[in-house]
Amino acid sequence: MSDAKDTTLSETPVAELTARRAKVEHKQLAAQVQAANDAYFQEDQPIMDDAAYDAKRQRLVALEEAFPELKETGGVSDKVGARPSGKFAKIRHRVPMLSLDNAFSDEAVAEFVARVYRFLGRKEEEGIAFTAEPKIDGLSLSLRYEKGELVAAATRGDGEEGEDVTVNARTIAEIPQTLAGPDVPDIAEVRGEVYLGHADFAGINERQREKGLPEFANPRNAAAGSLRQLDATITASRPLRYFAYAWGEMPVLPAPTQMGVVETFRRWGFRTNPLMKRCESVEELIAQYRLIESQRATLGYDIDGVVYKVDDLALQARLGFVSRAPRWAIAHKFPAELATTVLEAIDIQVGRTGALSPVARLKPVTVGGVVVTNATLHNEDYIRGFDSKGLPIRDGADIRIGDTVTVKRAGDVIPRVEAVDLAKRPADSKPYEFPTLCPACGSHATRELNPRTGKEDAVRRCTGGLICPAQSVERLKHFVSRDAMDIDGLGDKQIEFFHGDPDLPVKEPADIFTLAARDAGNLRKLKDKEGFGAVSARKLFDAIEDRRRPPLNRFIFGLGIRHIGETTARLLARHYGSFEALRAAGIAAADEASPERQELGAIDSVGPTVVEALIEFFGEPHNEELLDRLLAQVSPQPLEAVASASPVAGKIVVFTGALERMTRDEAKAMAERLGAKVAGSVSSKTDLLVAGPGAGSKLKDAAKHGVEVIDEAGWFDLVGG
Ligand code: IVH
């Protein structure tokens, strides 16, 4: 990897290079592209962004065009991806899985179209139709059907040979096991993209966090990591999705056009992208590109451009391929959402678990249409120029206050400081010193050793625990939050207010439940304070009263015990049934030889990190006292008790389309409160689909699986509210 050290691209035009310089540059670039391929395709851990990768690859190809002696057959410029990783058996693609050339401007698209016309010897008046469709940012998967039955699934690998992930692919709901239709050929290889939606990606990372496992950098990596699992039950637990858009071996094509084949795929049971459109001119292609780009933020999944393809398959066949890509298609990539600005300050935020997070305060700058003033700097090592494995990033350059930096905003993720311009660094700048004391309470902030890896945690944490005001405010916010106790009218702002209020201080969860009584005894009433008034004070007290009997899982989650997210909280609630039982187990489990320790460790999906976290939480005397005070105020309800009276108890419910009387989160919370399980997609296990206006494919899925469908009004009739 030492050859692969990232260097900026040379700006000397290729035509002006000497053969010697071209050779040196070619060698460096080939190593960098190879390393990037390995990192991207094998490790699911990209080491450079798409724009940097594309630029390097383009320069490499340009060098080889100008100096043909540099080109090696089977060299890196010929390869689409990287070799298979060796974990899986290999499958040789009968028709290679190719890649796409890229266009980065409208002019380049016009050139592509002109090239197609030229190649086919067609005049403009004769016209050639193209399709335009989103370029899904996932990983491609080839599915082989014989006599309509799925027999093999293979990743792209190096384009010639991929990995056999058949067992894993069978667990993906959106991949049909059998193809339906009179025109399904004996052999049909359907190709498309496996990807994850944004919400599902967030859920997966939440579970990674709960288990103390590293989080995925983006949905693409998470999808790749989920598909390429030796344990297919892990794949099955991840809501992977699939769009079909191409094909491999298919001796009899079901239609004469790209559009026609894709429409056939839909009839056969695949999902195809609704934004695919047939266009007659460059202008129409660009218009569809703009339309897709404008919907990018609300699609719910990542796309990184628009793919144009010649529609007529006879013309596609005539156009053929050049080394790694078809002549009849091109990917029009979205520009990276980057902007340059000045880093004015670095603030340290203290989270609920004491994690110190560095936040860049930036001179305001527009990135992809949004004004950005803050960006994440991740952690101490990132600022110093190292990644999570201790390897240098940005060529080892650190980030300093006063630096001119590049900010990147990708999709809906938090903007981040990506690169630093050393040429613009002020002469008097100094390396940033990450605080070793908590800025909120002054306690030592340390980096724990991870017991599993023996390595220092990337995160520095305040050791102040219960005395740290920043942690206690964040813990209170978490306790009342939507997914925990869900107290109406008590949000972040109100928690901050009460935390600092001398008349009605809220320093710990129990204080919330004594607010009304304390207010009654106070001379200065809440209703007279700014921002409240009689009605909102009354409503707040009512909302608090309403939560004195919270569902056990929400109560456990709300405690903010490290590594215990919603899912684990629910598991624990189900397993122990009452808070007393969980608490007794947590205390007894401190003894390593105890049966309680064994039982805790044996719960499915509860790993050693969670066990340790529970023991530590219940072993802390302060927490014991805090719990005693809290349990004097509230009585967590076992899940069954809440659920048994409800008509949807134990049912699997899916919500789709627009809901008018409640938000999606509210609907989910309500269903769960009533003992139902809310799923993201319809399968044969689904009991009920609640569909609002605009419901789409889920309705079809429901029909396919014979799932009962009701509307929002029907839902309220059913649950009585
Ligand atoms: S067509 C021979 N269509 O992009 C052409 N590819 O950079 C086959 N991709 O390997 C590809 N969305 O993984 C095509 N609508 C789409 C796509 C798409 C995403 C991916 C695919 C391909 C890569 C090429």
Automatic annotation (TrEMBL):
What positions does the domain BRCT occupy?
643-716
Q: What is its EC number?
A: 6.5.1.2
The positions annotated for binding Zn(2+) are: 438, 441, 468
GO CC: one term? cytosol
The residues forming a coiled coil are none
| Pfam families for this protein | BRCT (PF00533), DNA_ligase_aden (PF01653), DNA_ligase_ZBD (PF03119), HHH_2 (PF12826), OB_DNA_ligase (PF03120)
What Gene Ontology molecular-function terms does this entry list? dioxygenase activity; DNA ligase (NAD+) activity; metal ion binding
Keywords, in A-Z order: Dioxygenase, DNA damage, DNA repair, DNA replication, Ligase, Magnesium, Manganese, Metal-binding, NAD, Oxidoreductase, Zinc
Q: Which cofactor does it need?
A: Mg(2+); Mn(2+)
List, in alphabetical order, the GO biological process terms annotated in this UniProt record: DNA repair; DNA replication
InterPro entries for the chain: BRCT_dom (IPR001357), BRCT_dom_sf (IPR036420), DisA/LigA_HHH (IPR041663), DNA_ligase (IPR001679), DNA_ligase_AS (IPR018239), DNA_ligase_CS (IPR033136), DNAligase_adenylation (IPR013839), DNAligase_N (IPR013840)
- The enzyme class is ligase
Task: Enumerate the active-site residues.
Answer: 135 (n6-amp-lysine intermediate)
Catalytic activity annotation: NAD(+) + (deoxyribonucleotide)n-3'-hydroxyl + 5'-phospho-(deoxyribonucleotide)m = (deoxyribonucleotide)n+m + AMP + beta-nicotinamide D-nucleotide
For this protein, the record's PROSITE patterns field holds: BRCT (PS50172), DNA_LIGASE_N1 (PS01055), DNA_LIGASE_N2 (PS01056)
* UniProt xrefs under SUPFAM superfamilies: BRCT domain, DNA ligase/mRNA capping enzyme, catalytic domain, Nucleic acid-binding proteins, RuvA domain 2-like
Note the PANTHER family from the entry. Answer: CHROMOSOME TRANSMISSION FIDELITY FACTOR 18, DNA LIGASE
Q: State the similarity comment.
A: Belongs to the NAD-dependent DNA ligase family. LigA subfamily.
Name the job this protein performs. Answer: DNA ligase that catalyzes the formation of phosphodiester linkages between 5'-phosphoryl and 3'-hydroxyl groups in double-stranded DNA using NAD as a coenzyme and as the energy source for the reaction. It is essential for DNA replication and repair of damaged DNA.
Give the protein's recorded name. DNA ligase
Q: Which organism is it from?
A: Bosea thiooxidans
Name of the gene: ligA
